[in-house]
Write a structure and sequence with these properties.
CATH topology: Aminopeptidase
Largest sheet: 7 strands, mixed
Number of strands: 7
Order of helices and strands: EHHEEEHEHEE
Radius of gyration: 16 Å
Strand order of the largest sheet: 1-2-3-4-5-7-6
Length: 181
């Protein structure tokens, strides 16, 4: 996307961009703000949890110095809660994490005015650039099959069904195996 500037931050740089992430989230989820799980406060709490995990990275996309989207995630550690609520039988060892195997892409979102421009893919690819994990996982709300379909065009495959929190929506867990790192 022409004119988009990307900035990368680790956990130490999160305070510099946290307000921007919260503002973009609030705009995207404005129609669901009344839902406890989708409230800005709960999102901020989840963001904080992610930033405490080794390997946390965020990439923010800007147009004319205005944030238009971002992605962030962290490396799944041994004993992670990421796979809690998995409702699907998966092969033995498929959810065993060691702090090097899997990068969890926790959020990827762009404002409605830049959807369909390739901005999300650019932000996604920048977030993964240089990462050493052998795979990437993410969760997509079951109610958003078009989003799930988009990720499959990027190489992700369906892994299972998960409800990570008692009050969260039902998600499809997707996995991207990374040949080149």
């Amino acid at each position: 996307m022409d004119g988009m500037k990307l900035e990368r931050r680790d956990a130490g740089g999160l305070p510099e961009i946290r307000r921007q992430l919260l503002d973009v989230y609030a705009e995207i989820y404005a129609d669901r703000a009344g839902e406890e799980f989708h409230s800005v406060a709960r999102f901020d709490e989840r963001l904080g949890w992610n930033a405490e995990v080794p390997g946390f990275t965020a990439v923010v996309g800007y147009l004319d110095e205005v944030p238009i989207g971002y992605a962030y995630g962290c490396t799944l550690q041994a004993g992670t809660r990421w796979w809690n609520g998995l409702r699907t039988t998966v092969p033995e060892g498929a959810t065993v994490e060691d702090g090097r195997r899997t990068f969890a892409l926790s959020e990827l979102m762009v404002l409605s005015e830049v959807r369909g421009t390739g901005a999300a893919k650019i932000i996604h690819d920048e977030l993964l650039r240089g990462r050493q994990e052998e795979r990437v996982t993410l969760l997509v709300e079951r109610e958003h099959p078009k989003v799930c379909s988009l990720y499959t065009t990027w190489g992700y495959g369906w892994f299972g069904e998960v409800q990570p929190f008692p009050d969260s929506p039902l998600y499809d867990a997707l996995i991207l195996l990374r040949a080149e790192r």
